[in-house]
Design brief:
Layout: H1 11-28, H2 36-44, E1 65-68, E2 71-73, H3 76-86, E3 93-97, H4 103-109, E4 114-119, H5 122-134, E5 140-144, E6 157-162, H6 171-175, E7 177-188, E8 193-201, E9 204-213
Parallel strand pairs: 3-4, 3-6, 4-5, 6-7
Antiparallel strand pairs: 1-2, 7-8, 8-9
């Protein structure tokens, strides 16, 4: 497992590091996320490096920010909560559907053995991979592909996380889940969804519902049509 965080080299860097620590303490831990490994991952991944420079000062507030092409970087609490629900372990292979900025990807890289991330927008996939290289993260593979279909080359996966709203869990993702694995997907309409956790046990799939969220739509063959 590998990962990294920017080392402070100026007053601005130290200020942003202090903001990140405050974010973890008040916006994440203060709102009920308690897994120490998740808190540490959120503490060490510099969210400001996943948005444009003019947004750096907003990076540690608890709201989504635009990243271009009609997409957003999720608010920190949602990233932390979804990561906690995933319950990734150090030997796990994880599939992420919807790389976006790569922030969630980087957080997952701190917890899992390997992360494969799928992004349908090639420009976002390239940018995210550049960020992984800049941060020294070498246990991540990012592919420009229709994430709603999953990625059979690495299946089965111990954990699958979808970071876009789907009408229902895509069947290919359920089929690519390992025995004992867990799939987390926001299910609902194009505006509002609820997090749903699917678990594969003894050849059966069980599900449970969690918080209400609002994600951009999962566009793809097993998601929403691109034309709305």
């Amino acid at each position: 497992m590998s990962g990294g965080a920017a080392r402070p080299s100026s007053a601005d860097d130290r200020y942003l590091e202090e903001r990140r620590e405050r974010m973890v303490r008040t916006l994440i831990k203060g709102r009920g996320v308690s897994d120490p490994a998740v808190l540490e991952a959120m503490r060490t991944v510099p969210r400001h490096l996943f948005v444009e420079p003019h947004l750096h000062n907003q990076a540690y507030s608890d709201f989504a920010l635009p990243i271009g092409w009609g997409q957003t970087i999720s608010q920190p609490w949602v990233v932390a909560r979804m990561t906690e629900l995933m319950a990734s372990e150090a030997d796990h292979a994880v599939l992420e559907v919807g790389t976006g900025s790569g922030y969630q990807t980087a957080v997952l890289s701190r917890l899992a053995r390997w992360v494969t991330s799928l992004e349908r927008i090639p420009q976002l996939a390239r940018r995210a991979m550049e960020r992984m290289r800049d941060l020294g993260i070498d246990n991540v593979k990012i592919v420009s592909f229709d994430g709603s279909a999953g990625w059979t080359q690495g299946a089965p996966y111990d954990r699958i996380i979808v970071t876009a709203g789907a009408p229902v869990a895509p069947q290919p993702l359920l089929e690519q889940l390992a025995e004992g694995g867990r799939l987390l997907v926001p299910e609902g309409d194009r505006e509002q969804q609820r997090l749903r956790v699917y678990e594969s046990r003894d050849g059966r799939t069980r599900s449970s519902e969690s918080e209400q969220v609002s994600f951009v739509p999962l566009v793809g063959r097993h998601g929403w049509p691109a034309d709305g």
